[in-house]
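A brief tutorial aside. Many learners find it easier to grasp structure tokens once they have seen a single protein encoded end to end. The record that follows does exactly this for UDP-N-acetylglucosamine 2-epimerase (Non-hydrolyzing). Read the sequence first, then the structure, and try to relate runs of similar tokens to stretches of the chain.
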Amino acid sequence: MRVLVVAGARPNFIKVAPILRALHAAGDEAVLVHTGQHYDDRMSDAFFRDLGMAPADFHLGVGSGSHAEQTARVMVAFEPVLLQVRPEWVVVVGDVNSTLACALVAAKQDESVGCRVAHVEAGLRSGDWRMPEEVNRVLTDRLADLLLTPSRDALHNLRAEGIAEERVRFVGNVMIDTLFAQLESARARDAAGAMGLPRGGYALATLHRPSNVDSPDALGAVLGALRQVAASTPVVLPLHPRTRARAREFGLEGLLEGLHVLEPVGYTDMLSLVDGAAVVLTDSGGVQEETTALGVPCVTLREQTERPVTVTEGTNRLAPWPLTADGVVSSFRAAQARGRRPDGVPGPEGWDGAAAERIVHALHALARTDGAAGF
């Protein structure tokens, strides 16, 4: 079976790495397309190295641009690759622009190509159509022949949208496959210890979403909260380029003083920091999942989450919205008081390190047959 796997941004690499390994182990031909939506070559190279991934078979190099520009560039660049490879399956992951663009190209090919689309991480919903990711999620799920869900609640979302249940398979969270595979290396790396910080003795923060960093009031509230937290608990902040630029633009760089500000870090170092933190404060979807898998208390700096299982079955909580310094600090204190999940208490169902094998099994079980896909 020939499977074309698409990755466009750093979170995608984490998800496709175990899928590629599982495809190879099953004797399938796996072809990796890196769209280049994430265009920082240094950081992309670091993720490939940390995850033990071979270079992509195709690199589309689409780079930055508006959502429309980026989506269109991926579509134009991906079509000739699809026609050349002619796979049985196109596997797209997550909710970035590349996910929707490649799914749309594959869905519009005529029967001579004969491929089907599988969406890994299907069925997640925030209910917030202001988020470009929400548009990508919903439309990709409408296009996909096989919807591979990371948690049981996703099926409810898909049913509500009228998607036929026979197109849906629960496989669990493939991102956690990578986490468990890399955890021993991450702990040996001891990224916090290299800064003189003990395990469990610091808070980790990540901040990059436009709703938090493109407004001086919102960014000032979060950075002000982190500075208050840092008065009693060291705060490590790997600083996203967008966040750094906005802090400079808004004259908020002074709020970074007293924080352990880092350049963006690779996957293994980031996992090391998450695993060793007392509390994580984040607006990242993936970090919400990682903290839940590890049992680390997490405060999500967003109005809502498309990963509610991290709240109902995990260690995550939403900070009061709209964000204020006092609200963020009080949420941090509550998470800190709760502490880590006790050892031996399992995380959500299917977050067990074997999701990639279930994904490949589902692809084999629903290998292409003659006739229309039946969207």
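Self-check: Residues 1 and 28 are 5 Å apart (CA to CA). If you spotted this yourself, you are ready for the next section.
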